[in-house]
Amino acid sequence: MKVGIIGAGLVGSTTAYTLAIEGTANEIILVDVNKQRAEAEADDITHATAFKQDCTIMNGDYPDLSGAHIVIITADGAPNFNNSRLELVDNNTKMFESIIPNLVRYAPEAIIIVTTNPVDVMTMVALHLSGFPRSRVIGSGTVLDTARFRSLLGQYLGISPKSLHGVVVGEHGDSAVVSWSTACVGAMCIDEFAGVMDRPLTPEIKSQIAADVVQIAYRIYHGKKATYYGIAGALSTICKAIAKDEKRVLTVSSFHQNVEGLQDVCLSLPAVIGRQGVLKTMLPHLSTPEMQQLQKSAEVLCEVQKKACGILKN
To answer: Catalytic annotation on 47?
Structure first.
């Protein structure tokens, strides 16, 4: 599978490395305004693949995206924020106005995966600018948040996160909804399982874990000025689901006509991902407080997405 990555910074290059080493892609094109950086990253990853998988990695430009089945956008016109990812809307919306038309011109059949923040808003921007079917414009959404939830909960319970089921929905950001009501292990609800393990999930512990799911990205960012391993893992997982037509359920961000009465919003809900992109989305059975939180998350995103679409009209 041929994959294009627009943006050869830490997220883009780490994603390229992950896709190459795991064998998900056999051809990767790195596109970046800093061509020297893109060429250096392509060479470095190519040398690593000599130990693992056969994969052609090269720096290129938009015409080189021709024939790509997936194009991932990691480029960020304003990577720094103080309080919220939503601060990045203006600059990144303007940046997408130059990226998306070129992508559409040279890779009209591609599935777009957006990871540029704020990812839910930028997914809506990419959808508007591309004119692609909704199924082929995907945001990385809360795939990473869901992995963080399972990781933190697994650490507390002393079990593998692979054995845990639980989702984070809504915004990839401050209004994300950590769903305890859907969490389970081995068909046993999470509270019951925690009791069996003598690791009770008190309201205080749940609150702390939920806060960590949302805030840990900021701690990582402030600790090393970037986050890239986790998101590369999330992007690789989405790409693999598409490449192998896995029909895997992932909490990606995509377009929804109606979420709790709010019209036309991009946010994360569980979705079946396969060769053609988003095949089906579903609303999990959330508790009443979680449904209220999801509605608030959708309200936040609706407002910012309307702002971004307004920028496109100017």
So the answer is: no
